[in-house]
Amino acid sequence: MVRAEPAGLLELEARLQTLGLAVRRDEPLARHTTWRVGGPADLFVTVQSIDDLIHAVELAWTYELPCFVLGGGSNILVGDGGIRGLVVHNRAGAMSVEIAGQRFPLEKAPADMQEAVLYLESGAALPAAARRLIELGWDGLTWAADIPGTIGGAVVQNAGAFGECLADRVIEVEWMDPAGRLSAWPREECGFGYRSSRLRGRRDIIVLGLRMQVERREPAELRARHAELAALRRSRQPAGPSAGSVFRNPAGGYAGKLIEEAGLKGRRIGGAHISERHANFIVNDAGATAQDILRLIELARESVRRAHGVELELEIELVGEFA
Asked: Phi then psi for 157, rounded to 5 degrees?
């Protein structure tokens, strides 16, 4: 069956090219997700700056075409049918410290400055940002040094680990809406909760960046803390392509434990299986499709519902078209 081309797609492609952006048609999104699954994007562009991000998204909205901003490709399951419209791969990842209302490279922060406001663009890779802060002696993202994804995705999901989360540090989040309005929400207006925010699932707001609080620590101390957390992560989480935890932990319990007690550890459908090491992980170890993974998700939810009377909620987001 031939897929119908959305109206305006050719015009959008031409306009994006006038911005100097390399546009790819029918780009397989499996190349850009941590699960290594996902069908094609009608149009796919990579942006390296916030200006290009804004311009690309505004053009898609002008032509009334769907627009999905892709970060690190973690915490999402892209359907085998792909994503219609435009996918913007956000690589705008500048980091700076704000001093008296001006932004400077992190290396130029005064040596006696013990606290700072850090500005990160939404396409910054979360683990790279965290490791750079560690080496420069700034604490605030040490817990995130091995978590895949970008700052934008971390804001939307309120990423966290080892008892810490991004919301603990956020001062404000900058965003754009379809009217082209640029604005910011202080932390109190972001609706942060356990692995959630008021930004989750919305396509009418694009995260541009955030300001967060960081403090000085000795780099050696931060490296030691990172090594400790990395060892814990390796001992608890499986290797292989996955999207991290599939379900949120229910109140007073653990999704992985409930799935394990339902007898699903090691259960396989197609090229994917529920991890033997951690049952809240689904691993693509044999050329899985998104449908294989979705069927395991549905099996886990139904089995836990029957066994425990608990309705598991997704931590990941389903994106695009599923068969």
From this structure: -90, -10
